[in-house]
Amino acid sequence: MITGDIKAKVDRIWDAFWAGGIANPMEVIEQITYLLFLRRLDDLHTLEENKAARIKKPIENPVFPPGEDSRGRPYQDLRWSRFKNFAPSDMYAVLSEHAFPFLRTLGGDDSTYAHHMKDARFTIPTPALLAKVVDLRLGPALETLPRLAAEGRGPFDLIFIDADKPGYPDYFRWALKLSRRGSVIIADNVVRDGAVIDAASDDPRVQGMRRFNEVLAAESRVSATEIQTVGSKGYDGFAIAVVIAEQ
Q1: Which listed residue, of 3, 63, 116, 172, carries a Cα 20 to 30 Å from 103's Cα?
Q2: What pLDDT is attached to residue 1?
Q3: What are the start-end ranges of the E strands in 3-140?
Q4: CA distances from 66 to 57, 60, 62, 69, 75 (A)
Q5: Which CATH code, of 3.10.450.50, 3.40.50.620, 3.40.50.150, 3.20.20.150, is assigned to 137-247?
């Protein structure tokens, strides 16, 4: 149970969503998921930049192209690492007027991705609320997660795990510590082309996911399921766990 100032801050965020016309918790989760996806796109672009620097060649597959969008905003401003440092009003304008239109067209008009993202909407009601939501912590997760707990942050309503696979069991344990009853924990890439059924696999990513699935199955404080997906990126899946009991 949380009380005092921390509870008041959490309540103010939910009250702000409600006052802005977002009364559905699933819509709140949707908006946070879009923000996480934008951060992931920035990570992918950084990987391409690093690769290009190593081989001393131009970036082959940039997520954010050079130049400006149709409204004159540099595409580089749509990167999480850039807009998170903007003033709240400017960050809000970047997301609502530039980043979300960019998401709706990413991958081409006829792609499966574009089909699923064509209705993506930015509905966070105010720049002030957006500034509360966007709080980036850089560093190894097993250092930053204990720091969050020590600062009294949380409990969080939604936690999304998409990181190095051998670390998933530990990330899940920390996610539980930073959750409350009703929190949702999502873990991506848990099927890995079906390789998770191979106990003899020498792939550390597969073994990491096997350990994660064992920890998830044994954890009585959550009700969980895994959903398999097949698409342009292959055969994989994600786990959804709802916390049903307090620590």
Answers
A1: 172
A2: 42
A3: none
A4: 15, 12, 8, 9, 6
A5: 3.40.50.150
